[in-house]
Amino acid sequence: MGSLSARSFRSEAAAELPSAEARRKYRAGHAGVSTAGVAPGFVQGNLAILPEKLAGAFHRFCQLNPKPCPIIGMSEVGDPRIPALGLDLDIRTDLPKYRVWRNGELVEEPADIMSHWRSDLVAFVIGCSFSFEEALMADGLSIRHIDEDRNVPMYRTSVACEPAGPFAGPLVVSMRPFKPADAIRAIQITTRFPAVHGAPVHFGKPEQIGIADIGKPDYGDSVTIAPDEVPVFWACGVTPQSIILESRPDFAITHAPGFMLVTDLRNSEFSIQ
Amino acid sequence: MGSLSARSFRSEAAAELPSAEARRKYRAGHAGVSTAGVAPGFVQGNLAILPEKLAGAFHRFCQLNPKPCPIIGMSEVGDPRIPALGLDLDIRTDLPKYRVWRNGELVEEPADIMSHWRSDLVAFVIGCSFSFEEALMADGLSIRHIDEDRNVPMYRTSVACEPAGPFAGPLVVSMRPFKPADAIRAIQITTRFPAVHGAPVHFGKPEQIGIADIGKPDYGDSVTIAPDEVPVFWACGVTPQSIILESRPDFAITHAPGFMLVTDLRNSEFSIQ
Lengths: 273, 273
Hints:
Structural class of chain A: alpha+beta
Number of domains of chain A: 2
CATH class of the largest domain in chain A: Alpha Beta
CATH topology of the largest domain in chain A: PSTPO5379-like
Distance between the termini of chain A: 37 Å
Strand content of chain A: 15-25%
Order of helices and strands of chain A: HHEHEEEEHHEEHEEHEE
Number of helices of chain A: 7
Shape of chain A: globular
CATH architecture of the largest domain in chain A: 3-Layer(aba) Sandwich
Largest interface: A-B, 18 and 18 residues
CATH superfamily of the largest domain in chain A: PSTPO5379-like
Oligomer: homodimer
């Protein structure tokens, strides 16, 4: 063992995790179809990268809006590593697909952002509902959009986020329909995951939170709601992206929808009991 | 201090509790209007007394139906004391008002049951929603029937309890209306109280659990439900009483509605976190 440091030893151990394996594949250029179902049990995150001049205000925005914007990791200014999420992680290469934005316009969808990286960039990784969906399914609950092989339906609401600097706008929610008894169980389970959106923010009548047509989500796909089911709404990690883009920063990078950052954290680490 | 035993010392300390004070008043014959609001912070319970020949089946019934029938204390056969709920407690005198039943018919409503006590009787004390209502109010939620100065509305449902011996019948639920976000909070709070009915069993459409008219409760009073509110239903401690009386035992004693047993347990002891 001799010169092997504790850090490099941990790094090697981490390199054997399915999450680290997935990142190595993405780093080598294999994008796949999405990260859904990749490295089960490991936390996946939304990515938002901003120039330092905007990063402080965005960080405050997340602090003020923890339900839609739970930060699970962030980089130092100009540093592409986030060792807390994976010792070998390089945020410039380890996602399968990125989106590069200039003045709020999508300009490129590259497989890596080596050529876009700058010394003033800060990366934010924000929790994602995949973490609690796994816990719901482990408890025997069905997730409709998974059963119907669609993306989760997401809606812009009439609920305003707390503003910070240039960042302001509506809360975006994701929706999963359940029978009432299952909705009660889903509330109990997701309450255990405050760091990944936590308990729902609303259930029942969509118009109470400004959703005009439940059949027409603003993002993702619509799903079936049976007559004996109620729609249950969770704060959604699309909120910060939607708000970043609405504020039209001169430069931003995000993950491409469905192509998340796969981390070495385990979903179970986010359960508070 | 000399001959003062640990037990009698505890008993004296308990005698100073507001709950013990209330029991002493009831013992002396002061019934009051109900036990609502008496000894805030202390657990109140439903009372059911049965002959030993039925007590085993009733105990099994409670075991099989813990949400409506959480037993928080019971006596030895023929013993009127339940020291776990109050060292000085005498179940024959310490409630303000009782009901005596023969073959399912109410025959008397006495202030004590000294003349009815028998060596074959077993007393069951069953948790009551007062415990979690206090926690809901402490969190800033309004309880409609308290605001409207009425009894909580209760309904017989189409949900069958698990039967045991002669005891079988429908689940009775209590209903409190909330806006959805407050209902979510109420679910979180009452989940912490599994020993006093715990989380709701249903919310939303009353007909899904066999309630034909939400405006006509089977017990208690109806309350206002605003258009932006949903009815939320909890398993109710009236279930065991309703089921005992439907099975028409030759002899039973219960508390009179609203005149509960005040115990020395604290509501906070029933919170699991």
